[in-house]
Structures are given as C-alpha cells and as structure tokens.
Amino acid sequence: MKKIEINPITRLEGHGKIAIFLDDNGNVEEAFFQVVEFRGYERFLVGMPMEEVPRTVSTICGVCRGVHFTASMKAMDQIFGVEPTPTARKLREIFFNAHYVEDHAVILYALGLPDYVVGPEASPAERNIIGLIQKVGVEVGREVLRKRACAVKIFELLGGKPSHPVSALPGGWSKAINEEERDQILAWGNELVELGKLTLQVFEDIVLKNEKYMELVTGDMYKVVLNYLGGTNEEGILDSYYDPKVYHVIDTQGQEIINFKANSKEYLDYIAERVLPWSYLKMPYLKTIGWKGILDGSGTSLYSVGPLARLNVAKGVDTPLAQEAYEKMFSTFKERPIHYVQAYHWARAIELLHAAEKIVALASDPEITSPEVRRNDFHITGEGVGIVEAPRGTLIHHYQTDENAVVTNANLIVATTHNKGPINLAIRKAAKHFIREGKVDEGILNYVEMAFRPYDLCLACATHAAGPGSTPLELSIFTRDGKLYKRLANF
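User: That's the sequence. What structure does it adopt?
Assistant: Structure tokens below.
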C-alpha cells in the first residue's frame, strides 16, 4: 500500500496536510484531511475579565480578527445584561460588513481564483495572486487592491486599528462618528459596491464562460451531498451577517429539519463535536441524527456552513444587486440546494456585493451619527452566547463567568470546525476522481487541493480544544496491518 502526502497544503490560513492511501492498483482507497497545529484559546481565556476577551480573541487570526471580536462582543453584552444602543448596533454592523468585503476579496483573489484565472495545472510559481494579476492586467489588479483598501479603512475608522480592533464595549461601541466620517464611509461603501460588481464580472468572464471550468464547477468530482446550516431573519431572508435571528438546518433535499434561536444555548441541543485521534480539529455533527461516520448523501449527520450554505438556506437576500446575482446562481444550477463545492466561490462573490450594499444602506441612515453609542445599566448574568455569520460560516462564542464577569469556561465552534467533515469528504472524492492507476503529478495534486479551497480554511481559528484523548497520530501508523486506517474513517 502506498501513501501520498500533500504537506503542507497551500493557499489557506494555517497549517495542515492531506494523506492519501492507494490500493495495489494505484487507485485511491482513502484520504484524510489532517490539521497539525493547535492554538488552545478556550483554555487560556479562563481567568480573563470578559471585557478583555474581544480584544484577545481578535488575535486568533490576522485575517479573521473582526469576526472573533464581534462574536465575543455579542456574548459580552449578554454577560453584562445589556443590549447595545440602536446607533452602536448599526456601527457594529457597518464594521462587520467592511470586514466581510475585505475578507471575501482576499479569499477570492489570492486563494481561490488563481486556480481558474491562471489555470489549475499551471506551475505553482505562477498559480498565485501575482500570476492572477498578470493574467487580468495590472490595472485591474490595482483597482481591486485600491477598492479593497476602502473596506480596511472603514474597519480601521470604526474599530480603532486596521488589524486587531479595540472598540468593543458592553452594550455599545467606543467610537461615535460625525457627519464627515459618515460621508467618508458612504463614499468608501460605494467603491466597495463597484468592487462587488467587478468581482462578479470577473467570475463570469473567467469561470462561467469557460466550458472546461464549468465542468469542474458542476462535476461530480467536487460534489458533496450534505445538510446545510445558516442564519436568516424571521422571514428566512439573509439580511444580516452580524445578527441573524434564526438558524436553520436543511437536509440534502432542501427540507428544513432544525431551527434554533440565534445567540442562545439552543445550539447545544443540535450540534455535537466529535474528537478525532488523527487531527487537532474536531468534527461537528447533528445530534438529532447521530454520528454516522464521514459519509455524505441522504441520512448523513454532517453539515456545511459558509457562503454556499447560507444561500442554500436563505430564501433570498435583502439588497437588489446581490438578489439579482443570487437568482442567477440558482437558475444556472437548476437545483436547490446546490451541492457543488466549487460554487462556494460564486456564493462568496455574491456575498461580497451584498455586504457592500449593506454598508451603503447603513451609512445612509442619519441615526449612525448619534452620540448615543453605549449603555451602562449592567447586571452580571454569568453567561453569554454570541453567534455571527462569519465569512467562512457560522461562528459560535459561548462563555460562562463568575459574579465579577471573569471567564470560567469558554466554547468556540468556528466555521472551519463545522466544515471539517465536508472538507474531508471533498478531498476524498477529488482524490478518487483524479488519481488513477498510481499516476500523480503536481497538477493532479492541485486538483485535490482545489477541493478544500472553496471552504476558505482557517486552521488557526479552528483548533482551540480537541478534548481528551485527541492527540493526533501520524496516519502512517494506521497502515501497519494494511486495513486498520479504514476503521478510522468511521471513528
């Protein structure tokens, strides 16, 4: 039995590897997605004053800093027993949508689209953001970077820093804005809407109009049939990434099987996390179905989160340009839910435009210049849950504290954690399709890596508590009897 290892895997945030096992004929028998780093924030947050947590968890990742900041801030509101003022809520949401745009732009242009713009079989020296800019033209590249910078400027203006923000307060926001700043945010927001339109046009010109690429987008080699989790408002419309009201789980046929209230402990009734002996990343599944193994198809207990999951769950979005793009995507695939992993890139481009439109709408509201940006009527409750729709998917921060609001317990379930099972399935399916009779080269291995890039992995974000007995072992030890590793797949 032969083992192929892709180590390290590329164009993602964090460190991981893929182990592929071939049978005697050189065909793939099994493949595993291993996460080999560990962060452990759940442990060292214990003993920290809750008001320090948002600034601290923002350091989990330099890319995802805004989402951990925001989810923990929402949990902090509950712990201090206070709701943010209307103005503070709107400023938080503008901040969060700006983070969305800059994050989605990075993922599309730097990590995902080089496979399509440059070519999946191109040399790794060219298959990157520099190669992408060379293909689309320096002027287009410059325009994308300039417009994306507008999102970072909004993030910095409202968050206090361009990297790790500092503006979270229980029941509010530390910075009020004036009319001049509102006008500046509005101008930047309009630039971001143009970036959203440009991004969708780039995706259409490069991917949708390319017959070969559409075979990848709609092919079974990247099709994983799962349940989907995402948040909406009470009417089922995706109108806020910062503050969805209801979370829905739909099954593989698109039927709703679970819903629960946002920002509550109800998620514990439906989501369980399985410890794996071969990865620092746990594998969540639906409690109501029970553990079925790393399997897709009808009856699976695995589910996916993120841009495609959100659009699969939602009945629509609440801005006109993004809604038009949403309708086009579903009419192109002619099915719902969409189970094609590469469609995550398209969904991400739609969300980029949606978030930009939301910035303009919120910045047009004169209430956001009100000086009423915080409340002080605190009472310590001892527990708080903050759930947001992060760019990569549903993000849960759950804290318990003592009577002084000092953390005694923390539970983080990050989007990449939710997607651990789907990622493993996507890699396995792609490996079985592309690796035949022992033939392997750089291009083939990149096709396998293309199975995880649409999920936009952030392994630094996802590895915080692996639980007892979870020391990851090298998969090579499971080949000693030639078959033992197969049992691992259903562990």
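The first strand starts at residue 2 and ends at 6.
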